[in-house]
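As noted in the main text, all predictions were made from sequence alone. Below is one such record, for Sulfatase.
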Amino acid sequence: MSWSSIKRLLKRPFVLFTIILLLKGHLAWAVTFGELLPWKVLVTEIPFIWLLFSLVEWFASKRKLTWYMVINLLVTSIFFAVIMYYKYYGVIVTYHALEQVNQVTAVSNSVFSLLAPYYLFIFTDIILYFILSFRHTKFKQWKRHMAHKGSKRAVSILFIFSLVVCLFNVLPNRASMNEITQAQEMGILSYEAYTIFSKDKTEMVPMDEISQQSIDQLKGTTVPVNPAFSQAAEGKNIIIIQLESFQNFLINLKIDGQEITPNMNKLVNSNFYFPNFYQQVGQGNTSDAEFVVNTSFYIPSIGAATQNYPDKQLPSLPKLLKEQGYQSATFHTNNVEFWNRRELYNALGFDKYYAQPFFEDEDVVFFGSTDEVLYKKTAVKLQEMDQQTEPFYAQVISMTAHHPFTIPEDKYKMTLPDRYEGTFVGDYIRAQNYADYALGLFIEDLKKNGVWDNSLIVTYGDHMGLPMYSLERKDEQLMQEIYGHEYSYKDMLNIPLVISGPGITSPRVFEQLGGQVDILPTIANLAGASLDSQIHFGQDLLNQNTNILPQRYYLPTGSFLSTKALFLSGSGYEDGTHYPLAGYEDSSVSATKAEYEQALKLLHLSDSYVSQLPDRQKK
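Prediction:
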């Protein structure tokens, strides 16, 4: 083919925009699926694009090039959103994420930190189009030549062919559990369309068929007659400290002799420590952790709990402890409207919440006052609450060690080794070192004002800080240096849990598997609060040795942790991947299909129960 023939072809918008969007599809696939030259783009993305182009060729006699650019902009925006969302969450974005649009400005630092400069090339042709359309005479002439319609017969044949290929990509993969695999087999664009038009046909389990007994049977839980540590903290204040992005590898970590989290280490080495503890959050991240911990329910299948369940009469820890005579409050330096927390706190039954106006201070990092301000003002308020006749339950949400972890230099409390400087992992470690410093000040204040000795303190991480899919090669090498092995899913989801209480706890490590859903029943046992009439999906970690933890969002649907392994679902169980947990690395253990089915049933029961709870009357 001669160069003149190629030029004539490229002047046809159908051909030109096919090539442009093919290149953009390659970029999206390279980032999300790790395939540099994926041939599947040709058989998944291009047929969907041709469907759209065929509509233009059929119906657009005027402004044809404009309509091609509209489609180009739409598809480009989808690919760009997929890239950015995957880098932050590790999942494929869908239209449901539009509910998060009002959250983006609050985490703009996080978003921009993930933006590799070459991602912006995806918009190059669009920028050039607008420049040339106003300034270049030949370009204007080319636009006018686009007015004629193509052959209707040829367009019809192409439309039917493309539709058949798209259906062939979509229909066989509808039952796949793994959303990333689904998008890869269907194609990103077809997957996005599928999520819009598909309806959830899952039937809810009737409320009268959901009982604590049925949940315990699914999990294999047997409630002991005389549970250990029952009522050990009865009448004590209960303080939950939720640490932002705090992963378990930080515990007792030293880098070139420097202790990274000395204050957490003191808590861990002097109290009850649960090293095999895992996050169970989803799209709502920190707010999801607040929901799971305070309800012992799982997160919804789509969206954040704060967006799905705030109108429900939620059984919760604040309500349970109120029956024991407790007052309750929650403390967070962020805007209470962020992630709809005002409604969440009302639904959970907190007596009071203290948010951004209470902590207003010049010492601000990211989108709220620093942990030092949080802890200092909270300690004063807790002392006031402690002086009242009834005990209190307080949840304290730290924030400064938030993605992207680029804290101001005046907050540096350590000097990083040179190899960590300028890396994502280095920024994370330095931010957590500061967060630990602030936590130490809080503990000192609570001990000085007498609150510590009269309290049970539960400390845990809310969610991961270092997603595998956000790490550059240098970061991966640093994580391998820290772990002694390649950083994996089981490492990424692992967060610490520490239970501290003067006269109650002692230096002890509990090796059993646990998750955030287990915190409520564990506290209930210690506080002597009966759960006989409150449905919960967690279990008392002080009295159970086996467990199953269904996962959502950060792992594909159908993934879970069992006592021996983390299971990452494929299209189903048979093509899933097994990651042995600590102590089982040298054996050929695997999570069983029975456990896989149990995990799915537990999620379904939780969804059914919470969705059918009565609506609450708003104040």
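The radius of gyration is 27 Å. Residues 77 and 123 are 9 Å apart (CA to CA). These features were considered when defining construct boundaries for the mutagenesis experiments described in Section 2.9.
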